[in-house]
Amino acid sequence: MTTKPNHNSLKRKLAKVGKLPVDELAGRSQFNIDLMKDEFEVVMRNQIEELTDLMQGKDPASIRGIYEISSQIISSASFVKADWVSRAAQSLCEVHEIMSAGKWDWEAIRVHGKTIQLLASLEPTQEAMSQSLLEGLGAVVAAKRG
Q1: What are the start-end ranges of the H helices in 58-126?
Q2: pTM of the full structure
Q3: What's the pLDDT score for residue 7?
Q4: What are phi and psi of 20, to 5 degrees?
Q5: Is residue 66 a contact partner of residue 55, using CB atoms and an 8 Å limit?
Q6: How sure is the predictor about 122, in pLDDT bands with cuts at 50, 70 and 90?
Q7: Spatial separation of the C-alpha atoms in residues 137 and 72, rounded to whole Å
Q8: 14 pLDDT band (50/70/90 cuts)?
Q9: Residue 116 in contact with residue 137, Cβ under 8 Å?
Q10: What's the Cα-to-Cα distance from 24 to each of 1, 31, 59, 71, rounded to whole Å?
């Protein structure tokens, strides 16, 4: 006994959105997401450069900008799956909040900025190094809390 493929009208309608097959639309969507990842990678690197510039000046007027750029880095790094960079930027935001309630420490900020730069340059295979760097940032945050 042979079975005929089920080609009912509902199945045909579900297989297409508008005039394009669902598989083709999914492929196009993934292609567009991949293009956006490249763009966001550039955006993230530009944000890191901007953060570095703000930190070098040690200008008290740039303190709020450091937090804002760190928040932006979290978003762009998350989009490109640069989890290490995102976690370091989150740590910078956390230490920023702690220090905003007390004495500002440019050295703690500088350490975070340099670490973000370094993490952005690491290959995915360098997980042990990235983990060690993130642990170091955790120690900085813990010291600021204490």
Answers
A1: 63-79, 83-100, 106-121
A2: 0.76
A3: 61
A4: -110, 145
A5: yes
A6: very high
A7: 19
A8: low
A9: no
A10: 34, 11, 52, 35
